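[step 3/7] fold_predict: job queued, chain A
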Amino acid sequence: MHFFRQLSTESKIHVLTSVVLLVGLFLNLGLQPFYLEEPRRVLITMEMLENNNWTLPTQLGEYYYNKPPGFNWVLIGSTSLFGELNEWSARFPTVLSTILLSVLIFLLNWRYLNRRAAWLGAILFTSSAGILFYFSTLAEIDLYYSLLTFASIAAIFHFHKVQRYFPLFLIIYGLSALGFLTKGLPSLVFIAISLLVFFTYQRQWYRLFSLAHFSGILLFAAIIGTYFWHYAQHNSVQQFITVLWGQSSERTVIDQGFFDLFGHVLAFPFQTIGDIMPGGLLLLFAIRKDFWKLIRQNDWITFCCWMFGVNFILYWLSPGAKLRYIYMLYPFLLNVLLYLYLQRSSLRPWRMQLFRGILQSLLGIMAIAAAIIPLIEDLAFLNYLLPLAAIGFLLFMALFIIGWRRKALLLPVFLLAVAIARIFFDLTVLPQRAYDSGGQRGKDIAAEIVDIVEDKPLHIWQDGRFSFTIVAYINQLRGQTIRRNYQRERDAFYIANDTLLTNPHESFYELQYHESTLQLVKWKE
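[step 4/7] structure written:
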């Protein structure tokens, strides 16, 4: 408490915001059912655990080639930590990765900028709309992969600064090897572009031919080679590499076409700025004549600008690229925007006036949004809407007044409001998804199927498409995984697409999956 009292008012707000964000990231984390790509990650992990084989990822009992198993290893570790693989343990690595990324941004900005930039940089990243209200709630690869990739790129700058090149290359190649085992070939692209551009910019390209660099390459080769040597004991490595290559090339203009490229080039920068909101508002202070002059005044910001620019271009020119593919670049972009915001004194007053007007308006909108929560029909099942709305309205109005009176604190106050908004998201949206959503319906269907099947054998018939959400929950409820089966077995249940039901059968359950009708059947013969 003595330490807290010594902090400035702004620092106290930052500490409070960080605590609220920490609570918000974990609150009701395991409440909403698995959806989107989460069930795929979970069921592959379940099969690896059941097979007692951490080398060979399978999906419904068939070889899975689209991703190496790095993230599945993380899920296995989380399962061991919490005792079971469920919504909480599956999403914990995502939240932990988000926190560690924020801490890393804080430490780097503290060392190479200042205390204020350390707090704001870390909070702005975590508060980015796409991360705070979407991907931090999912058991997905991208934030874990972003942690590995951002740390590896940032290591170039830090260890170059302290002139320690063996750690530089060993860390970047070690982390990139883990990244490769998580998401495949993009890690090679990140490492190649970042190293080449940095040492060319520094006019030290000769370091790419040093013993330290070759030691890093050797470490990368040893890690990847060891994995694929083990993989080769079970299946074809060539097939795995071919699919990984196809996964990367399918996002390029060659595969997508020039019409898609044109639309992507126009939209992607705007989508990126929207996804990092409220940090994207700092763009108001970045469009200026002295942009490069200011950037060059700080080596860390120069590095951030280069690393974002050269790596972003590749995804900007790839029509199939999605925003989550560049989460590791968000800290670099936000640092550049933040630095220019902090150097705003030479700009005309209208920019800051517009910035304050936008933040104040958004605070007012938050207060109104909180007040009308009880009017949302989809939330009517919650019995705490009225007190929640009252508390929310009072909180956001209080922050509105503080921001109005203490203009110098408006940005920290607004970021605190965003953190509080995540708490309200946890208390409304996540319970609603657990109450009525596609994921919850899939969970209910899984329970109904398990009630019918009991402990009898259960399979997916041939290559019929099926909801991974339902499969994941069937696996969870039965304590064993279900696989595809191309042979008819006596007394076994099959989930089959009705177009594949050419043999006499008895139907026990029917459901719709997209445009298909699926049935739970037993063969009559």
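[step 5/7] annotate
Residues 348-433 form one domain.
The mean pLDDT is 92.
exit 0
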